[in-house]
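Might you be able to check the backbone structure tokens below? Thank you kindly.
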Amino acid sequence: MAASPAGALAELDLDALSAHLRATLDGGLAGPLTASLIGGGRSNPTYRLSDGESEWVLRRPPYGHVLPSAHDMKREYTVIDALAGSAVPVPVAVHLCEDTAVLGASFYLMNLVDGRPVGTTEQAEELTPGQRRGLGLALADTLADLHEIDPATVGLDDFGRPDGYLDRQLKRWARQWESSKTAERPEVAVLLDKLGRALPRTRFPGIVHGDVKLDNVLVSRDDPARIVTVLDWEMATLGDTLADVGIMLSFWDVPGQPANPITRGLATLDGFPTRAELLERYASRRGIELPEVDWYVVFADFKIAVIMEGIAARHAQGETVGEGFDGVAGMTEPLLQRALELATRSSDPELRR
């Protein structure tokens, strides 16, 4: 069982969780419940559960300071449940618990998916160049398939409001910055001014994942170019689908340009398609002509910087679980600088000035 940071967090209460699952799961539990912390994530604590016969994954919000409206377990559960059987592979949603008396926060269970992670340079280096190319194109295909789903056909027609989505997002993440910042950074105001002036019109509304990257998919163990599930839907909503394209490109590093400090040059490994190839594949899959996407990439860099700042603040207060947090505090500034650099060389005059 994984423990929370000493002095700040209680351990995952297996007795309370076991009692709750015995009473709510069909068939109850086959035996004593065991749990282990799944590493790799920096946001929502994620646990692997087993009763000796079945295995599940439990997701809950972070401990301590949580940004308003973030880490919504019901939202994540709702969207993976709705997408079951669609063109987008998702885990099976098993149980949602909104009673905070059980574990101190809402949480949900999904079935454990047998897949291979490819979210780090070390993991991707184990693939052949051909497999890496196939994986990159599969990510673009999967994202296009998600965006082509009519929300009404999967019961998500009231899952969000595409009209005004980008304006609300910009204001939301500006507020999140103010709630999370550990230091004053003048470039934030500059970025917000540029993004506000150049705000695009939403042309392609649909289901938005919100955090599209290789670290949020699992691939087949037999065929690493086949995605078997898409994870981490906590920011999903209805909105401008090109916001997802911006996130995907933010995590898709370009040789010779500053890398995203999270992916650390992952997509520059031999074989991975270029950003231009990803965009061409995505647009072809959807049958659309893409407009200029610089705004979406700049906004993505800013949004990720805010998320990293929030995680760094929680880590400094001893409110994170697991490993991999020591370098987070140093990620905010490079992301902000990268966003400014792209804005100043963009073809969009409102972003440049």
